[in-house]
Amino acid sequence: MEKVNAVILDKMQSDVALIPQLASHIIAAGGKRLRPMLTLAAAQLCGYREERHVALAACVEFIHTATLLHDDVVDESDLRRGNATANAVFGNQASVLVGDFLFSRAFELMVADGSLEVLGILSRASAVIAEGEVMQLITTNDTETTEDAYLDVISSKTAALFAAAARVGGVVADAGRPEVEALDSYGRNLGVAFQLVDDALDYSAHKATLGKSIGDDFKEGKITLPVLLAFRRGAEEDRVFWRRCLEKLEQDDGDLEHALDLMARHNALTDTIERARHYGARARDALGIFSDGALKSAMIDAIDFTIERAY
Amino acid sequence: MEKVNAVILDKMQSDVALIPQLASHIIAAGGKRLRPMLTLAAAQLCGYREERHVALAACVEFIHTATLLHDDVVDESDLRRGNATANAVFGNQASVLVGDFLFSRAFELMVADGSLEVLGILSRASAVIAEGEVMQLITTNDTETTEDAYLDVISSKTAALFAAAARVGGVVADAGRPEVEALDSYGRNLGVAFQLVDDALDYSAHKATLGKSIGDDFKEGKITLPVLLAFRRGAEEDRVFWRRCLEKLEQDDGDLEHALDLMARHNALTDTIERARHYGARARDALGIFSDGALKSAMIDAIDFTIERAY
């Protein structure tokens, strides 16, 4: 990962100083770098011992960062991981354009690597992510959204890049088709689990005790699984409440607390985590065809970590 | 071009209905399709007789369309070519995301074509375009911008894609290095001329007589060559005027008319067109190594058309 970070720092440079300034703001804010780690781990699990996976892991992080920059503009977010978002500091305009730059730079890096198969995987994933984001835009504020429609959204907007990140690791290692498909499946299911837990955390008392803000999705009227479950399991008067808060966005003091009460009453958060466990189990089983070892254990630990951070 | 349009219509489809709706809004609004025509003409000028250039011309138009969608969000524009912009109709959020989709789709199309060289040319051009847009964002409202800095901006934001579009035509035709470089040079200089004329047209009485709106750049405080020339050639009291209108964006009734008067007094528009002629001449001479014929004549006519539309 140190080598990946060095490539990221090197390739986000530009003579236009605002680009590295803005890019380093979001990249240094430092997410968990889960996606590039998937590429590295997948390649090594397939016995890869060379260096190509380093630059490709950086591509994956660039694509992810570009979508984050655009997401924050689309969501009009002010905070990400407790820090001011790039759009809040540098403006929406710069965030849109630097996102475009990082996205283009990712493709330049892939071209330098030279694998059309990798280019195909990541260009396809990028188009699917954009489709997922548009789907989410449409379902936002629609409390009638089904769990299936919600899963379509998160499979596209989140899990597609997890799947592609892991698949690229297998491809670069020249692994066989069963191994590459297994890695794709591992990444995809891990991605769904990750997003489910993220969506639960947005309403989590545990997160609130860590001093992080909760209820951002509620304020924006985003329809996530915790809301879906509470809506479908609730009485008609509850639905009137959800429609007022999330469709009409008419929210008063105490509404978030009432939403949390309804979620607790209907086990909406615990069952969202339970659903995440299901995808975690599928991710774990996808790795079954690989022989045991330290790396495989670490990849399984990543599933557990993804789910346990809910507590 | 009919085949290119068919590919564009086919490849902008998605199960997410909002994507083709929004994409067709901007694509059907129908620009001049100058960039994909460059790819087709360049390939044919090099004797190419197959079909690959059709899909690649569509890629070029997708990249252009993606940047237009993002530009209109960045500029907060309501009108493009006299029609409501996509962001005005569908919102900024959808415009950002559908731009990302079209951009990803362009790379998918290139991967299907299979040439790493083409992928390299267009990914590099895309990164340069984004750099140019960020540069423009920084120079906006800065009346001290030099003509050189302005040329850097338009070389990146506009001419880079013209150059890449023409170069790709040569590469797909497997033309020699002198021919490919000549096509690049033709496209690049044509692109600079095109943008100069566009910037002059934004203040053009001729355009106003056609019922099109003028002064959009003035309202946004964009520093283009007509402004640069009028600012540098004017007296100190004129500069106070330009700074108030374009840096502080304090504009009153009659200010646009006064700006037009100052431009007329200092020949700012006619000399901007004169500068465009210089780049047009360079574009024409770049084609000198190709033997005469109908296609070469058409490409020279395109230069003349680009410049003469100012009148």
UniProtKB/TrEMBL annotation, chains A, B:
Protein function: Supplies octaprenyl diphosphate, the precursor for the side chain of the isoprenoid quinones ubiquinone and menaquinone.
Gene Ontology biological process terms, A to Z: isoprenoid biosynthetic process
EC number: 2.5.1.90
Keywords: Magnesium, Metal-binding, Transferase
Cofactor: Mg(2+)
Entry's Gene Ontology molecular function annotations: all-trans-octaprenyl-diphosphate synthase activity; metal ion binding
Enzyme class per UniProt: transferase
Protein name: Octaprenyl diphosphate synthase
Catalytic activity as recorded in UniProt: 5 isopentenyl diphosphate + (2E,6E)-farnesyl diphosphate = all-trans-octaprenyl diphosphate + 5 diphosphate
Family classification: Belongs to the FPP/GGPP synthase family.
Entry-linked SUPFAM superfamilies: Terpenoid synthases (SSF48576)
Any matching Pfam family: polyprenyl_synt
Signal peptide: none
